[in-house]
Design goal:
5-stranded antiparallel β-sheet
Amino acid sequence: MEALRTFLSELTVDRKAPVTSLLTALNQHLPQGFEPHSDGRMAHFSVPHSLYPNGYHCNPKQPLPFISVASMKGHVGFYHMGLYADPTLQKQFLQLWEKANCGKLDMGKSCVRFKRPAQLIAAMPALIELMKLMSPQEWISCYEQNVKA
């Protein structure tokens, strides 16, 4: 979490606790191999160059992105590249969301938007289960087949 401290320190008071809980859950529940880092604007969990030397196709100097969290003006964004690239994973997430009964889903291709901190807290069980569903190796394979191609 050290790499994410600056990002966390700049959050508004109402977002600090739920976003900290989300980042802690990511650290605890993502399969081993993803590494946390921050660019100052967002917190990221990526596949490091040590596991995937090619890096991100848009900028090979960057590690392969997987999950990012951003605190935007009107929402907290949870970006999960696997949801964008893998329809089966997206379907599993939709089932987890429905089961968690945490309100209307506000989702784009890879982004789940939380306009209220309470909804982020309510969605944590679904997000934690989602975190467990794809390993770095599975993400690399999915990325190479569905995104990079």
